[in-house]
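for the writeup, i need someone to sanity check this before i put it in the appendix. the sequnce is what the collaborator sent (i think, or maybe the updated version? ugh). structure was predicted straight from it, no edits. if anything looks off just tell me and ill rerun, i have time this weekend
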Amino acid sequence: MNTTAIERFLLIWIVFVGSFGRSSCSSKCEFKAIFNFGDSNSDTGGFWAAFPAQSGPFGMTFFNKPVGRATDGRLIIDFLAQALGLPFLSPYLQSIGSDFRHGANFATLASTVLLPNTSLFVTGISPFSLAIQLNQMKEFKVRVDEFHHSSNKKGTMCNLHIIILPHFHEKTLPF
């Protein structure tokens, strides 16, 4: 492929993406939740919830306190949530103060696609590989369905600190 063909392709792609983003996303992209899988590039505090360590600057720039991130500020997933009008994602592994009404973040620092064959303390590789994160999502869905099934039988919603909307998975954005 020569330079002219590449430039033409890029121009067509930019025009297509630009026109798609302006016209349809403002009226049709009504995602109710985001479920994120990944590593430190999108970990909003899951790793530090599982393995607490000394506090550092993990999020100090934007949040003005350590929040368990591998960065000092916001992540791309934060900007995506903000652009969709959703709050920042709570880490799945952080139970206190979490709000899963708009999704959950299963990403953890140092995660891999394949299951690690060694220990976190030997190599620094997270035990939360993609397969583990997907299993966590499956378990999360089962528990949400059980919660709504049992609350519908009682005729009243339990007074829980963590509130999850029924059928949140119908319009979600997996990331």
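Strands lie at 33-36, 103-105, 172-174. Confidence is low (pLDDT under 50) at residues 19-25, 156-169.
thx in advance!!
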